[in-house]
Amino acid sequence: MRLDRADSEVVQVTLSRRNLLSLLAKVDGHPAVSSGAIIFPGTGAEPTLVVVSESDSVHYAKRTGPGPMHPATEAWIRVHDRQQDDWRGGANV
């Protein structure tokens, strides 16, 4: 993980594929006692960053659904989502 300050108001967070897969594993319950978060301790120059993952059904429970996504990305997610956690409350098939 890397934090890059673009200016005083913007911080860009760069996560490796491994970090992203870690979040996916945690939201899927691996390990079962996982908090669903990865924490990158801060230093004197950087703040601590906490990245939390949650299921789509929890994340979108109080919203009408996710925002726009590129159709090719959405199609890839539909094919590869093995957890059947569809934001509309149904199963991904």
Largest sheet, spatial ordering of strands: 1-2
Q: Count of helices?
A: 3
Helix content: 25-40%
Strand content: 15-25%
Please give the domain count.
2
Number of strands: 4
Query: Taking all residues together, what is the mean pLDDT?
Result: 77
Instruction: Please tell me what the overall shape is.
Output: globular
Radius of gyration: 16 Å
Whole-Å distance between the termini? 33 Å
What is the N-to-C order of secondary-structure elements (H for helix, E for strand)?
Answer: EEHEEHH
Helical/strand content category? alpha+beta
Q: List segments where confidence is low: pLDDT < 50 over at least 5 consecutive residues.
A: 87-93
Question: What about the largest sheet?
Answer: 2 strands, antiparallel
Walk me through the topology.
Layout: E1 2-5, E2 11-14, H1 17-27, E3 37-40, E4 49-52, H2 56-59, H3 71-80
Task: Report on the architecture of this protein.
The chain has 93 residues and is an alpha+beta fold. The chain contains 3 helices and 4 strands; from the N terminus they run ββαββαα. The protein folds into 2 domains: 1-53, no CATH class; 56-93, no CATH class. It is 27% helix and 17% strand. A two-stranded antiparallel ribbon has the order 1-2. Strands 3-4 form a two-stranded antiparallel sheet. A hairpin with a 5-residue loop joins β1 (2-5) and β2 (11-14). The radius of gyration is 16 Å and the shape is globular.
